[in-house]
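Support reply, case 0932

Customer input (verbatim):
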Amino acid sequence: MTELLTSAQMRAIEAAAIASGSVTGLELMERAGQGVVDAVMEEWPNLKNKPSLIARLRGLPARRKAVIFCGPGNNGGDGFVIARKLHQLGWTVVCYLWGDPERLPKDAKANYLRWLDVGQVYPFDASESRDVRLCEPFPDLWVDAIFGIGQSKELPELVTLMMQRVYYEQNWCEAPIVAVDVPTGVDADTGQSLQTFLWCADLTVTFHAKKVAHDADVEIDRCGKVVVADIGL
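Our regenerated output:
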């Protein structure tokens, strides 16, 4: 059986690799973001192509669209790398950030600034009015890069409200949700849900090895299909 890692073990492995000089945090983040994009394209090969002529004649956009939710740590940094990679593939990308960008960890902030060179970042919004950036047009992909590993307590209210908005929009557009490392609201070390309302990922892309949450015996599987991306550790 493949070993399952706790969040602390995974952080220790990354820290040791960085301390050895074999890799930098920025390089790991770049590899992680690319790993997510590669996994998405393998899971849904049709996303490699532009929408069909029939779709465009029906008024749908000629470019694929992703909506990416980034958090205040390195998981959010992975999200900004994913945004940049999809943009390079010709996608329209909308990024949201929960938290203060000035307080992002060094590597995450570097990728936040790289994204600002090509796109905008919007704050999470508690408004009940319809957010046209979310749904006009509907996205082809939702990306959850809010917290990742290390979640152990109930989510902030603003994060929950944003997840609820996505849940109802997702019911209309039926675009898949991809989680980076661990779906938001799932305890990485137990697999337990941290509150009542959560979304379920269609695909979870984790790095180096599966975490305990991915194979936990829980009532509701919120991770969907789990793919392990090699980031060279």
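We compared this against your earlier run and they match. Two observations from our side: Helices lie at 7-20, 25-43, 53-57, 74-88, 106-116, 132-135, 157-173. The two ends are 20 Å apart (CA to CA). Please reopen the case if you see a mismatch on your end.
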